[in-house]
């Protein structure tokens, strides 16, 4: 079962550059973890305080292991004082159907 995680967090005003100065170390280390299929942080183009994170994991256990990794714990401890808000959603990804055409509204 593949796990998909979407995270939106809002930084305190003026904290974006500080976050960007250390976020890539966490991204690089996370991508090396067992079970990681995708992991990226995306700064908003429209609001400099907003960040979006997209993650994919082979299993829920892989995700649980990730949040206890020393590099992630250090990253999270450093990021927490910069945050105004944080919201995460975890999904079980299952293929409902396969198509070779883009969906369109009727």
DSSP summary: helix tally: 4
Order of helices and strands: EHHEEHHE
Kindly state the number of beta strands: 4
| Global geometry | globular
- Helix/strand-derived class? alpha+beta
What's the average pLDDT? Answer: 93
How widely separated are the two ends? 31 Å
The strand line-up of the biggest sheet is 2-3-1-4
Level of helix content?
A: 25-40%
**Count of domains:** 1
As for the CATH topology, it is: Alpha-Beta Plaits
**Radius of gyration from CA coordinates:** 16 Å
Poorly predicted spans: none
For the biggest sheet, the summary is: 4 strands, antiparallel
Which CATH class is shown? Answer: Alpha Beta
Approximately what portion of the residues adopt beta-strand conformation? Answer: 25-35%
Organism: Bradyrhizobium icense
Keywords: Monooxygenase, Oxidoreductase
GO molecular function: monooxygenase activity
Domain ABM: 3-91
Give a quick summary of the entry.
Keywords: Monooxygenase, Oxidoreductase. By secondary structure, the protein is α+β, with helices and mostly antiparallel strands.
Please supply descriptive tags for the structure shown above.
AI-2_Isomerase_LsrG; alpha+beta; single chain; four-stranded antiparallel beta sheet; 4 helices; 106 residues; Alpha-Beta Plaits
């Amino acid at each position: 079962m593949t796990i998909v995680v979407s995270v939106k967090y809002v930084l305190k005003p003026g904290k974006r550059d500080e976050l960007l100065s250390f976020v890539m170390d966490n991204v690089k280390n996370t991508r090396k973890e067992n079970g990681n299929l995708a992991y990226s942080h995306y700064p908003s183009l429209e609001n400099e305080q907003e960040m979006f994170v997209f993650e994919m994991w082979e299993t829920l256990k892989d995700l649980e292991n990730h949040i206890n990794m020393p590099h992630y714990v250090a990253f999270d401890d450093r990021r927490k004082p910069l945050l105004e808000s944080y919201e995460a959603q975890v999904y079980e990804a299952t293929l409902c159907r396969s198509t070779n055409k883009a969906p369109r509204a009727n």
